[in-house]
Write a sequence for this structure.
């Protein structure tokens, strides 16, 4: 159609302005889609910090607090769960597996997590991805430790290096080292983008062993000091856990088991559904993402405004062109179409270029972002919300393009073939 | 297309009454009877502000009179709808302005071809197939002294004013419309270019058998036309407070 050809050639005639306008829309689209991408990735990767675990059990406290210390290892537990309770839960018919964790020690600022070796099979993150070892194996000896990726990288540890754990979780601990019982690095995990990367894992028994004589909170039993060899020989079955990850045979039983645990008589404990509590937590910290989204929407509006301004500015110098087209037989509605087509072309190219620039940029920076922040940007085909965003931007730009087009329509009607100042 | 209007005058205005605005002081033009015969060439002269351009806008169907009828090629254009009039204009009229006739971002050839996209009838008249139409446009440009191979492919803005006017003439004539209307097409040209332009204009007019109505200040060129039309003589104009054009 001739009008579309005219629109294209007219745009090409004003290449510089046109390209700048297209770029400003493209950049704004990139920003908006990028923010949306980071937002949804952050949300997904946050909520999927732990997956495959149906319930997390701990001493009675707030759900968010339990989640914070048991999964993110932020803050401390107020109380432990006794081993008898752990055994009681394990004996329930609904339960397929349990993984206990014991917190309270650290190594050079990184948390130490005591756990069972089943942890390495049961712990899943993102969409059910299991932990993987880049080097070594899970613990085989009492004093074996498995390091998260960040711990190994930052502290530059290799397999068979010796490390000394500290009692307590402060960044610096003075005179509280478990110095007489050094650990050996037996395995190093692959990066996961979850708190696991910042954890030193040891066995439940090791936690028992290094705390013999620490019952009062400080090492008191100097005389009864035992060597590593002696420790290996005594019974070190755990007496308590800080929290327990529970996997069920059937998800149908989640709520009945939760009710059973929450009303457990012998000890005050609670069970939480990690997904639900993650959602609660996210809604508390997720407001920043809304602010980002609003800002980038405003940037898109500014770009569209820029487009209208550039078309409006060209209107006056194009009155002659409109009169010529009218003389040749163009209807005023065709003049209107011409200007709308120009706005649509600019918007379309802007959105398409913005989209492809974003995805090629994502493709390039994805590994860096994951390394740097642990945020995994999932590059997939555009999701519905992205498509809706792009269609909305297009629609808004086309609607905005009607403003100059209407002016052109009215000018061409009143000017006719003659241009009156 | 031609036979349909064969026996009618190219232009016929009767009892026309047009007024800008609505008060008595506004510019008003009344024409009792005016005709331009088929194949006739007429030059319309008159002082500035005498309503020449208004008359042309009436003929093109851009303005509508308050009273009276405007017949072009026997058809009463007042009875048409707006879009029918736009269509009628593109089918039957070629229009040349004083200057800035061309769409600046199109090449000379594309400018010449432009009316054919708006008028399938003229497209038919220019040729059945695109290559025929293109060669028709090139031929027209060549006849009018614009080398189609070199200047024809250049953007319109790069041409001189004299060249632009000749491209405009080629555009007016392509597809052989019956009526050519020109609004002081030579006023921006020097004498040599004026003569050259008029020679070509009349040559094309003879070839296509079109009628020609041209507005001009320049009475020296009047002898080339079949008729000299003085606007004061055909119309009754009240110009108490006017400034048109």
């Amino acid at each position: 159609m001739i009008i579309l050809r005219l629109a294209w050639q007219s745009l090409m005639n004003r290449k510089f302005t046109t390209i700048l306008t297209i770029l400003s829309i493209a950049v704004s689209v990139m920003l908006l889609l990028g923010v949306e991408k980071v937002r949804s990735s952050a949300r997904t990767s946050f909520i999927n910090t732990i997956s495959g675990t149906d319930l997390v059990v701990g001493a009675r406290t707030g759900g968010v607090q339990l989640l914070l210390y048991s999964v993110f290892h932020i803050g401390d537990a107020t109380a432990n769960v006794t081993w008898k309770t752990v055994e009681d839960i394990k004996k329930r018919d609904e339960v397929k597996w349990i993984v206990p964790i014991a917190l309270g020690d650290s190594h050079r600022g990184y948390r130490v997590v005591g756990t069972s070796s089943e942890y390495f099979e049961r712990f899943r993150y993102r969409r059910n991805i299991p932990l993987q070892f880049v080097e070594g194996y899970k613990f085989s000896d009492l004093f074996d430790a498995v390091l998260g990726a960040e711990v190994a990288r930052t502290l530059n540890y290799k397999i068979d290096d010796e490390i000394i754990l500290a009692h307590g979780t402060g960044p610096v601990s003075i005179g509280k080292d478990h110095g007489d019982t050094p650990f050996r690095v037996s395995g190093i995990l692959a990066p996961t983008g979850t708190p696991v990367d910042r954890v030193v894992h040891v066995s439940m028994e090791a936690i028992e062993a290094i705390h013999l004589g620490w019952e009062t909170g400080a090492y008191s039993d100097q005389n009864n000091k035992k060597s590593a060899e002696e420790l290996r020989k005594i019974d070190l079955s755990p007496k308590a856990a800080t929290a327990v990850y529970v996997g069920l045979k059937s998800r149908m039983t989640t709520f009945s088991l939760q009710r059973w645990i929450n009303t457990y008589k012998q000890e005050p404990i609670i069970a939480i559904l990690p997904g639900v509590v993650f959602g609660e937590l996210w809604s508390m910290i997720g407001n920043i993402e809304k602010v980002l989204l609003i800002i980038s929407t405003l940037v898109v509006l500014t770009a569209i405004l820029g487009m209208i301004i550039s078309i409006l500015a060209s209107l006056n110098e194009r009155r002659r062109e409109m009169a010529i087209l009218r003389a040749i037989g163009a209807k005023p509605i065709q003049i209107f179409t011409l200007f709308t087509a120009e706005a649509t072309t600019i918007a379309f190219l802007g959105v398409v270029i913005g989209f492809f620039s974003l995805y090629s940029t994502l493709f390039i920076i994805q590994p860096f972002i994951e390394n740097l922040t642990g945020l995994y940007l999932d590059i997939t085909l555009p999701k519905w919300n992205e498509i809706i965003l792009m269609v909305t931007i297009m629609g808004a730009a086309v609607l905005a393009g009607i403003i100059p087009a209407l002016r052109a329509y009215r000018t061409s009607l009143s000017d006719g073939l003659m241009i009156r100042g | 297309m031609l036979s349909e209007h064969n026996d009618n005058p190219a232009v016929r205005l009767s009892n026309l009454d047009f007024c800008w605005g609505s008060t008595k002081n506004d510019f008003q033009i009344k024409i009792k009877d005016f005709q331009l015969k088929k194949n006739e060439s007429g030059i319309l002269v008159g002082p500035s502000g005498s309503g020449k351009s208004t008359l042309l806008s009436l003929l093109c169907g851009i303005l509508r009179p308050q009273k009276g009828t405007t017949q072009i090629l026997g058809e009463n254009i007042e009875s048409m709808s707006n879009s029918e009039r736009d269509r009628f204009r593109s089918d039957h009229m070629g229009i040349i302005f004083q200057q800035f006739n061309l769409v600046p971002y199109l090449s000379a050839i594309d400018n010449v071809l432009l009316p054919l996209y708006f008028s399938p009838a003229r497209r038919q008249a220019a040729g059945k197939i695109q290559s025929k139409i293109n060669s028709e446009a090139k031929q027209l440009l060549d006849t009018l002294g614009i080398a189609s191979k070199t200047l024809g492919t250049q953007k319109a803005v790069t041409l001189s004013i004299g060249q632009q006017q000749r491209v405009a003439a080629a555009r007016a004539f392509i597809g052989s419309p019956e009526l050519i209307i020109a609004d002081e097409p030579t006023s921006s040209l020097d004498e040599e270019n004026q003569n050259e332009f008029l020679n070509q204009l009349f040559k094309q007019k003879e070839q296509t058998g079109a009628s020609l109505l041209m507005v001009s200040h320049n009475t020296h060129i009047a002898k080339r036309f079949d008729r000299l039309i003085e606007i004061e003589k055909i119309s009754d104009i009240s110009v108490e407070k006017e400034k048109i054009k």
Remarks:
- Residues 55-272 of chain A form one domain.
- The two ends of chain A are 32 Å apart (CA to CA).
- The first helix of chain A runs from residue 2 to 13.
- Chain A is about 55% helix and 15% strand.
